[in-house]
Protein: Diguanylate cyclase (GGDEF) domain-containing protein
Amino acid sequence: MEDYLKVLDGVDEGIVVLDKDLNIVFWNKYMENITDLSRDEVEEKYICEVLPKFKEKIFLDIFKYMLKSNQKYFFSAALHKKFVDIKRYGNCNLRQNLKLSTISVNDENHILMEFVDVTGQYIRVEELKSYIQRLEETQEIIKNLADYDQLTNVYNRRVFFEEVEELIEKNRETDFRGVFTVLDVDKFKEINDTYGHYFGDEVLRITGERLNRITRDGDLVGRYGGDEFLIFVPNIKERKDMRKLSQRILNSLNSSVVVEGKIIKPSVSLGMSLYPEDGTNIDELFRVADKELYRDKGRNERCCFK
Structure:
């Protein structure tokens, strides 16, 4: 038995042996290290006095049953924490699995408790989770940079066209209808020349913000480039609804913008086309809407500064 206990003293896990009265008869070096309690301090003491976690009824019942039946039990660190009382002993971050089995000493059953440190595993798992989260956040940032115009926070031209094409293709065999809109800010060059590019950028940023605000879930907004924006609104039922849509856009965009105390009331011009009447693909829809835009130019070229 002495040789056996020496072997247990050298293993890299906590080993505690209890007699039939649940008093500690062996406490190995590992347990001394993690609890700062020497073998002499704990031997012959009731386990619940030394490690209060085992006062819980589930453990007391299991100990009693084990001494009669020789059953083995396993308790995971994922479900059971603080086998070692962190208020008095050891590291508060210590994570351990607990194995319980019986051994025979002098023809009497004793309980063998094995505390297996899995802290390193948990740390690695947490590090992996953290890495995955950072990776997902980075991928989201990269996707945002790739898909969105960074000034206006609307789709860039490539993604906008891809999204509209996908929507059209998906609904090609249905009675789906949608409005394609091209708009630009009137006299935008005049705004830049008068107040500088920072002021012009703010006008574009606010325009994108307003477009995002007035569109519904499922509507698509993009920046074509410069001062031109694109909108695709699906599920328009009749051509007359296009007028209501254009009025909603104009009411939102033809309102004052204040930047660094300067007030400007920009206006926009827009052109629209209706799928599938005006075109069955994005090139045809864009061509018709762009032609309507230039037909509308001049009517809305009002721009006043204060």
Residues 119-147 form the longest helix (29 residues). The longest strand covers residues 96-105. The chain has eleven helices and 13 strands. The radius of gyration is 37 Å.
